[in-house]
Design brief:
The complex is a heterotrimer of chains A (about 300), B (about 650) and C (about 350). Chain A is an all-alpha fold. Chain A is built from 11 helices and no strands. The chains are: A mainly alpha (about 300), B alpha+beta (about 650), C mainly alpha (about 350).
């Protein structure tokens, strides 16, 4: 007979998480669209990480470019060249880094703000006194108002005051994307707040911060993750639009900047791949995130399954 | 209710299809009538032609005091006349509203004889009173009008402007001003502008301008286009076209496409890659025309106000002439021309471009800069700049790290910047590049808070203004936090240069040219600007449709339109296939180029055959789907009734 | 706009609907809840006005500089010119002027054109409404139809193909699609014009003018339609599938109704609500979202006016457009809310 094994609460927690993850994966695997999206994303991220191995970064410097400008595909430049004589493929590979970086960073910012406001509003909103409800009210009015503010004019003004650079773009996109998340998280937080174990925690004297971080947050986490993935899709598209309008960072060749260059320097005249390639890359990445996001949502919320 | 039979259903479906078919055929039939109208407009006999100019920008407004862009001034010169023009062949004064002029013995009193028989577009005759009024208004001290025309009216004494009789005007200047024989100032009707007060001046829309020029405004829509009709009674002869339209394109590629399509006849403002992509396009002639433009790398040569007070945070290393020389040697002008302009530019020497040959500066043998990295290295090393960590030179504990700015909105500055950065990095100079809006950059420069920037100028045939940019008096003024910028964006200040500047104002001809050359030599040696290149104005037009242009300078690669403050081609151009006698008696049209290619009918207006096919196809699809849906719904409805 | 973003907006609207139902059951009265809605929209608009004011005062604006071109104007003179544009006064005075003027429809003077901003915006309004309106109608009709067809028989070939198409269109930047269509149909084959709203030459009266307008409208309209129909289709499909599990449909089928009847008379009307909400929400955003499409096709609407104002930079025009875009979104939200209240019988009982 074996000895009874004592394991700590922490180890139980980790074991449960591992099981949940395996469960999740088993279900996720069955979603065909989700798998397609995952493959695309893994591929894109691999390309972005392996960029130095795939193409020399010197190829990005127009001063060092030696190929003919606006050329059709050739041996050294399988996707042709742009008007500076740089290989479109090199720009595409390195551009993935910038586009993905901006996507992730802006989303992270947006998520943090959105989750914070959503959880706080949801938590205080269920409290039975005036102060709590007012906090919820004010935060939601603030969110509503942010939802209404049109993204582009705000982005324009901020880019003009702060100058076109990478972190400005990230900040601009981040602070215009959080309202959607806040709304969804708040709704979920409200649902969680009514669950019995939270009542018990309150009865046991748990403070607000403890309730929110140890109980509410873990339970909204799945929805938050799904929402995050979907938001990345949106932020990448937003960055593309900003760069196209000339508000992006011209010293970094993101996909949006490539499209901006193609717009200004000759499409329909020279190498059409300069326009087409970044577009297809953007479509692939955005679609990848969207498919993965929807699949994740479906697994986490059984009601949404079988779509 | 009688049950609908299968036959009835089929008949209904047939009726639906018939309707769709009828529309599909009808749309093209009706639309086909349209091109006939358009065709008449472009290839008809005589003067009934329309010439469309595409541009990457629209006219801001028709008030000549508030225009700011080149297309604004292009239009003003077509609806208003000046007293004289820069001649088409050699930039010498050509009479326009002033038929002759003379100056008194002491060089201070100028008398102009005004042309007889000129009428304003509202029928009122032009007299000396209008000319006098225009100059009187333009010399009101501290006014917007004065600021707008100061390059020409700066020395005129406001109270001295007067009309003598109906056709003579007299003005006195404060000191000898040879420039008074080339006053590019639009002459305005007194009976209109007398009613526009100073307060209302900047917001007066002037939507129905009254002018004496070869064209009149018939329609103006902001952000879109301005339509001008030929003035049939123009004193200089009736133009060879009836309608002139300037159309705005926000999408540069679309403008090139429109030229190929025939939707426009002239494309201005194309980027260099787009221009080159038009090589070989049917009926299109490419004019890689040298112009009066240059771009420079400007240094912070010790920013200070007109009182001499030092301002800003410029890197003191740039006060060292060796550093500036090293930077100039490190830049490969030929490579910039090749890569950024695809060859459509010329490496530069100093600030007056070679299209003004008498003023263009050629450095003496042995004194010219060249692309020489080794020399740049040597200069810096000899100056005490040792190579330090990160490949950046260090001297006395200071790194040689400079900021490089440039304004947004230019298709070439953001291409120049990485090259310049790379070349400077190669000789051990650290560079951080930042793009900013023109307003921000102007203020930054005015405050002296910069090291280097890339920007450019357009130089008129009269070099006075361009030279004034380097005078001490054009530096910033006022007080912190935001100084009022002058025209100086380099803060160069040299007493000898200022003296020569004053001197060239009072002489003309060869004497003046000599002084201007001396001034440029000072600039070349002292290097407050590293002038990069003189870039061409690439113009593309449908030579298979129009001919008779009068390029300036009078060479095959002269500017066809958007000339240096001149408007010769507009009076002389005519459709291909018409006789030269249509315009060759017009003033200024003795040197136009004639092309004898045959006209190609390319009516580009309301839907052509192909466009009609497009709409027809779409209409057919939409109606077909609708028809099918309607038929099915009926069938379903009846089936339900049956149940 | 991003899907997650609109999901959030949708969630907001649905949540409000939920609150509506609760309030209605509690007997608060339809009129009162409508009144509250309108009031809250007005308050949001007020916030936007205030935000607008401060946002554009942050930027350096000096139109006199452009007119002065140098030091020949004295500081007093420049101050006087700037006063025409409303700059240089003390902040609180500018603030009150701003509010009073805005309520009278005076949005200031454009730096670039020197005419009232309301005129600049007024001229640009109709082209945008035409473009946005046409594409909204088309994308709604086509998108909803696709969603219904796909959702009712989900898993079918049509559903799979349309899903693939929609996912692709949804991920596509609209200006990219515009450029591709421009190259294909204006450069490679000259079927449609390269830009503008009307031909500048030729006969433009009557039927010819209308056809010419349609000819120019085609490409930009196709772009906007394609980009938005994907969303409507996906949402319609989702909500229809949601409805599929409900009992009343079982009843309808048990009654012997044909499939198409069950679908169109019972399921679809109930499933339409989220789509309607989405369409109204989108309408508010499309007006500002058309900026890239208008730029690609040189379509002289509000988007193009904003783009030109952005590059100049013409702050009064930008401010005016910004205000208009925000107001459009607020009004669209309000209408969506009201529409839901009217359409959803569960709310009307009180």
């Amino acid at each position: 007979m074996s000895e009874p094994v004592t394991i700590s609460a922490r180890q139980i927690g980790w074991q449960r998480r591992r099981e949940a993850l395996e469960d999740f994966w088993l279900q996720y695997r069955r979603d065909r669209n989700g798998m397609i999206g995952l493959v695309i994303l893994v591929l894109m991220i691999a390309v972005a990480l392996a960029a130095p191995l795939l193409a020399s970064s010197r190829g990005l410097n127009p001063a060092l470019a030696t190929y003919p400008a606006n050329a059709d595909p050739g041996w050294h430049y399988p996707l042709g060249t742009d008007s500076d004589g740089r290989s479109v493929l090199t720009e595409l590979i390195w551009g993935s880094r910038i586009s993905l970086l901006i996507g992730f960073a802006a989303t992270a910012l947006s998520m943090v703000i959105g989750a914070l406001i959503g959880i706080v509003a949801g938590h205080f909103g269920t409290l039975n006194h005036w102060f709590g409800r007012q906090t919820d009210n004010v935060l939601m009015r603030f969110t509503d108002w942010f939802l209404v503010v049109p993204f582009l004019p705000l982005a324009i003004v901020l880019a003009r005051t702060l100058g076109p650079s990478l972190h400005v773009i990230i900040i601009v996109i981040g602070i215009t994307s959080w309202p959607g998340t806040a709304r969804i998280i708040r709704a979920q937080a409200l649902a969680v707040e009514n669950r019995p174990y939270l009542e018990r925690a309150r009865a046991l004297g748990a403070g607000h911060w403890h309730q929110m971080s140890k109980h509410v947050l873990p339970n909204v986490m799945p929805l938050l993750i799904a929402n995050t993935i979907l938001t990345v899709a949106g932020t990448i598209l937003s960055e593309t639009t900003l760069s196209f309008l000339g508000l992006g960072d011209p010293t970094r060749a993101s996909w949006g900047e490539m499209l901006n260059g193609a717009f200004n320097n000759g499409v329909g005249t020279g190498n059409a791949l300069w326009l087409i390639a970044p577009g297809i890359a953007i479509i692939a990445v955005v679609m990848g995130f969207t498919l993965v996001g929807h699949a994740t949502e479906a697994v986490l919320d059984p009601k949404l399954r079988e779509r | 209710m009688p049950r609908p039979t299968a036959r009835w259903r089929r008949r209904r479906a047939a009726a639906c299809l018939a309707l769709c078919g009828g529309l599909v055929l009808g749309v093209p039939a009706v639309a086909a009538a349209a091109p006939a109208g358009a065709a008449a407009a472009t290839s008809g006999p005589g003067r009934s032609a329309t010439f469309v100019v595409g541009n990457d920008g629209a006219v801001d407004g028709l008030n000549p005091f508030v225009g700011q862009t080149s297309i604004d001034f292009e239009v003003y010169g077509l609806i208003y006349d000046n007293l004289m023009d820069y001649g088409q062949t050699n930039y010498q004064p050509a009479p326009r509203l002033a038929t002759s002029w003379s100056v008194s013995a002491n060089q201070l009193v100028w008398t102009y004889h005004i042309r007889h028989g000129v009428y304003w577009s509202d029928g009122v005759p032009l007299t000396a009173a209008d000319v006098a009024y225009t100059f009187w208004r333009d010399t009101i001290p501290n006014s917007v009008e004065f600021a707008d025309n100061s390059a020409y009216v700066a020395n005129i004494v406001h109270s001295s402007v007067k009309a003598i009789g109906r056709y003579t005007v007299q003005m006195t200047v404060t000191k000898p001003t040879p420039n008074m024989d080339l006053l590019i100032v639009p002459i305005l009707p007194k009976h209109i502008w007398d009613h526009v007060s100073e307060k209302d001046l900047t917001t007066f829309a002037n939507n129905h301008p009254v002018g004496t020029g070869p064209f009149r405004v018939s329609q103006f829509t902001i952000n879109q286009s301005v339509t001008l009709m030929a003035n049939p009674h123009y004193w200089g002869g009736r133009p060879g076209i009836s309608t002139l339209i300037f159309q705005n394109f926000t999408n540069p590629s679309a403008e090139a496409i429109a030229l190929k399509n025939g939707s426009i006849d002239f494309a201005e403002g194309l980027t260099y890659p787009l221009f080159n992509s038009l090589k070989g396009a049917k009926g299109v002639t490419l004019d890689n025309a040298p112009s009066g433009n240059f771009d420079e790398l400007s240094f912070n040569n010790g920013a200070a106000t007109v009182t001499g007070k030092k301002i800003g945070n410029g890197n003191p290393a740039l006060l060292d002439i060796n550093v500036r020389h090293a930077i100039t040697y490190a830049i490969d002008q030929k490579e910039l021309v090749r890569r950024v302009f695809l060859g459509d530019a010329e490496p530069a020497t100093s600030v007056i471009p070679p299209i003004y040959p008498q003023y263009y500066y050629r450095p003496a043998a042995g004194t010219a800069y060249s692309y020489d990295q080794a020399k740049a290295d040597a200069i810096l090393t000899a100056d005490g700049w040792k190579m330090g960590p990160g490949g950046i030179r260090v001297k006395d504990g200071r790194q040689l790290s400079l900021r490089l700015f440039y304004p947004s909105g230019s298709p070439t500055y953001n291409q120049d910047a990485p090259y310049i950065k790379a070349w400077l990095n190669a000789v051990g100079i650290g560079v951080t590049v930042t793009e900013m809006s023109t307003n921000t950059l102007t203020q930054v420069i005015g405050n002296g808070d910069y090291d280097m920037f890339i920007w450019g100028w357009g130089v008129e045939p009269n070099p006075d203004f361009q030279l004034s940019v380097f005078t001490c008096a054009q530096r910033s003024s006022g007080s912190p936090p935001n100084y009022t910028p002058g025209w100086s964006d380099n803060f160069f200040c040299d007493k000898r240069y200022d003296q020569l500047y004053e001197a060239q104002k009072s002489v003309g001809g060869a004497a003046r040219a000599r002084i201007v050359q001396q001034m440029q030599q000072i600039l070349y040696t002292d290097d407050p600007y590293s002038v990069l290149y003189y870039y061409n104005d690439d113009q593309a037009y449908r030579s298979d449709l129009f001919t008779g242009f009068a390029p300036q300078p009078d060479k095959p690669n002269g500017l066809v339109l958007f000339q240096e403050v001149s408007w010769w081609s507009y009076r002389c151009m005519r459709p291909v296939g018409t006789s030269p006698s249509l315009t060759d008696r017009n003033v200024g049209c003795q040197h136009e180029t004639g092309m004898t290619r045959t006209a190609v009918a390319a009516a580009a207006g309301p839907p052509t055959g192909a466009g009609v096919v497009g709409i027809g196809a779409l209409a057919a699809i939409v109606l077909g789907i609708a028809g099918v849906l309607v038929a099915r719904r009926r069938a379903a409805a009846t089936a339900y009734d049956r149940e | 706009m991003s899907g997650a973003f609109l999901d959030g907006a949708l969630a907001a609207a649905q949540e409000r609907r939920g609150e509506e139902e609760r309030a209605a059951r509690g007997g608060s009265g339809l009129a009162r809840s409508l009144g509250v809605k309108v009031l809250s929209a007005a308050v949001t608009l007020l916030f936007v006005l205030v935000f607008n004011f401060f946002l554009f005062r942050v930027l350096p604006a000096d139109p006199a500089r452009n007119l002065a071109r140098g030091t020949t104007l004295t500081a007093t003179q420049m101050a006087a010119i700037n006063k025409t544009f409303g700059i240089g006064l003390p902040l609180w005075q500018q603030f009150t002027n701003y509010f009073v003027q805005t309520f009278h429809g005076n949005l200031g003077i454009s730096f670039q054109y020197h005419i009232p901003v309301s005129q600049v915006i007024g001229k640009a309004l109709w082209p945008t409404i035409l473009l946005v309106g046409t594409s909204t109608v088309l994308s709604t009709v086509i998108g909803v139809w696709m969603g219904i067809r796909g959702g009712w028989k989900h898993g079918s070939a049509f559903d799979q193909i349309s899903n693939g198409v929609n996912n692709t269109l949804y991920a596509m930047p609209d200006f990219w699609l515009g450029m591709v269509l421009l190259i294909a149909f204006s450069s490679k084959w000259f079927l449609f014009p390269a830009g503008g709203m009307n031909s500048v030459t030729g006969n433009l009266s009557g039927l010819h003018g209308l056809l010419d307008l349609l000819w120019h409208l085609t490409l930009p309209c196709v772009v906007l339609t394609l980009v938005y129909l994907a969303e409507y289709s996906l949402v319609m499909r989702s909500s229809l599938i949601d409805e599929l599990g409900n009992d009343y449909l079982l009843t309808a089928r048990a009654k012997g109704l044909r499939d198409a009847m069950v679908r169109s008379r019972h399921a679809v009307p109930n499933a339409l609500l989220p789509s309607i909400t989405l369409i109204m929400l989108n309408l508010g955003f499309v007006i500002s979202g058309a900026i890239t499409t208008e730029t690609v096709f040189s379509w002289p609407g509000l988007g193009l006016a904003s783009y030109n104002a952005l590059n100049f930079p013409d702050y009064p025009v930008l401010e005016g457009c910004f205000l208009l875009f925000s107001a459009a979104v607020i009004v669209a939200n309000l209408i969506a809310d009201l529409l839901l209240t009217v359409l959803d019988p569960r709310v009307r009982q009180a």
